[in-house]
């Protein structure tokens, strides 16, 4: 085998390094401690500290921002002109010869993302055909976000009873909900979600249906002024969330989200799955996010970007619990797991990806006792390629391979490969991966994520 993961005898590659695309949005973190900046710096994508917002790193082959692929071609030079799809179809020996169906991202969030939903497959095809400049592909976007730090999100609707109870506390904004026109006398009987739908739609269409274009801002100003006049310790969680949202998006209708939507605060390792039509907004924190290979987003608030309210109303799912939370909210993280060290985030309704995280330290802590030194190893999927990304190696996350500071390595079919935070490899099917025991250092944490394609 050559130094780039190729096997000359069989003339194929067994793995390549994936170089992500950096996305800079206003909601991204500007601090140099942001994971997106640390990973970019480690990968040579950030040469010096700056105050730009590094929001996302994309690892994948989406048509709008495909990752580069780093490997040595026949001339001995590093070739970054090919795509991951080229590698899978033409360079890997595995039986899977299709385009990569998933997209993986690292997100560093300093202020709330837009209030949004993602279309299902049928709507995605329709939108892409009619408005390709807004909806760039014809795919759905079921996604899972795994918290890497404390992570906040709105996701899915509260019960109708809770929504009615919340709105009752704020009479100054009843007009925004069309509250007097809604039959809310028996919210527990809202089995078809008609009350919930009407309240939500009334807020989104208030400006469109009201002759006074300033009325929305006037009503929201009354609410904000009252909340600001209340002492911090006397405010509810909902009220503090409304004020936080208003700081970033003044008098945007989306600041009323805490009255309607579930609010979650996740710990590292907790995850949230969001299916088609699920209303949501990530508020703060950092996560690893995996999704079907799509960038279709339908927005209705908390954003200066295009809002497609009528399409969102058509797409949104008004059921309760239309998101899945993988965590134990009352205790330490207890995920569905294959063992103590492998956390399995399998979602049965998703055909494009299957993501797991491996805590290498946890394995050796629990399995290497009484002279037992069994090496942690596994084989990649027998059917499809696997994407490996290093998400945590040290307390600082800073270790640049180019400076010789890589603190860990793995063996791919017995070839030693250095790893550092942010480094990612696309590995062919049926490749053996050995994870050696890390050096004992309480400051270090050795965790990788593996994404494969279900059969």
Number of helices: 12
Helix content: 10-25%
* CATH fold type of the largest domain: Jelly Rolls
Helix/sheet category: alpha+beta
Number of domains: 3
> Could you tell me the radius of gyration in angstroms?
24 Å
Largest sheet: 9 strands, antiparallel
CATH architectural designation of the largest domain: Sandwich
Shape: elongated
Q: CATH H-level name of the largest domain... which superfamily? A: Jelly Rolls
Number of separate strands: 25
> Between the first and last Cα atoms, what is the distance in angstroms?
29 Å
Mean pLDDT: 88
What is the CATH first-level class name of the largest domain? Mainly Beta
How large a portion of the residues is in β-strands, by DSSP E?
A: 25-35%
Low-confidence blocks of residues: 328-338, 400-405
Catalytic activity: D-mannose 6-phosphate = D-fructose 6-phosphate
GO biological process, one term: carbohydrate metabolic process
Cofactor: Zn(2+)
Binding site for Zn(2+): 116, 118, 143, 280
């Amino acid at each position: 085998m050559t130094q780039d993961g190729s096997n000359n005898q069989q003339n194929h590659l067994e793995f390549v390094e994936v170089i992500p695309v950096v996305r800079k949005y206003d909601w991204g973190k500007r601090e140099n401690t942001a994971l997106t900046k640390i990973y970019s710096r480690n990968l040579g994508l950030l040469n010096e500290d700056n105050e730009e917002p590094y929001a996302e790193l994309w690892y994948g082959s989406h048509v709008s921002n495909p990752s580069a692929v780093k490997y040595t071609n026949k001339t001995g030079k590093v070739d970054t002109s090919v795509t991951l799809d080229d590698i899978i179809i033409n360079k890997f020996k595995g039986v899977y010869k299709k385009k990569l169906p998933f997209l993986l991202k690292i997100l560093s969030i300093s202020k709330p993302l837009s209030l949004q939903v993602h279309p299902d497959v049928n709507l995605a095809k329709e939108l892409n055909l009619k408005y390709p400049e807004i909806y760039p592909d014809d795919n759905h976007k079921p996604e899972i976000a795994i918290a890497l730090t404390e992570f906040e999100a709105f996701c899915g609707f509260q019960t109708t009873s809770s929504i009615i109870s919340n709105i009752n506390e704020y009479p100054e904004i009843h007009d925004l909900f069309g509250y007097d026109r809604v039959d809310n006398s028996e919210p527990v009987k809202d089995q078809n979600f008609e009350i919930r739908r009407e309240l939500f739609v009334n807020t989104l269409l208030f400006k469109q249906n009201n002759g006074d274009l300033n009325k929305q801002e006037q009503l929201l100003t009354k609410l904000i002024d009252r909340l600001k006049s209340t002492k911090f310790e006397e405010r509810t969680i909902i009220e503090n969330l409304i004020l936080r949202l208003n700081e970033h998006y003044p008098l945007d209708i989306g600041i009323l989200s805490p009255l309607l939507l579930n609010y979650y605060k996740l710990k590292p390792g907790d995850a949230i799955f969001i299916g088609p039509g699920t209303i949501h907004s990530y508020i703060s924190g950092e996560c690893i996010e995996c999704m079907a290979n799509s960038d279709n987003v339908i927005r209705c608030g908390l954003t200066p970007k295009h809002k497609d309210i009528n399409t969102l109303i058509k797409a949104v799912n008004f059921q309760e619990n239309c998101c899945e939370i993988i965590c134990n909210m009352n205790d330490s993280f207890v995920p569905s797991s294959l063992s103590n060290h492998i956390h399995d985030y399998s979602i049965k309704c998703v055909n494009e990806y299957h993501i797991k995280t491996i805590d290498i330290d946890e394995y050796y802590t629990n399995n290497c006792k009484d002279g037992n030194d069994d090496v942690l190893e596994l084989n990649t999927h027998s059917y499809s390629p696997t994407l490996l990304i290093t998400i945590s190696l040290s307390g600082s996350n800073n270790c640049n391979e180019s400076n010789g500071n890589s603190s860990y390595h793995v063996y791919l079919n017995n070839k030693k490969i250095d790893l550092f935070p942010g480094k990612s490899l696309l590995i062919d099917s049926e490749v053996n991966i050995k994870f050696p025991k890390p050096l004992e250092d309480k400051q270090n944490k050795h965790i990788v994520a593996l994404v494969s394609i279900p059969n």
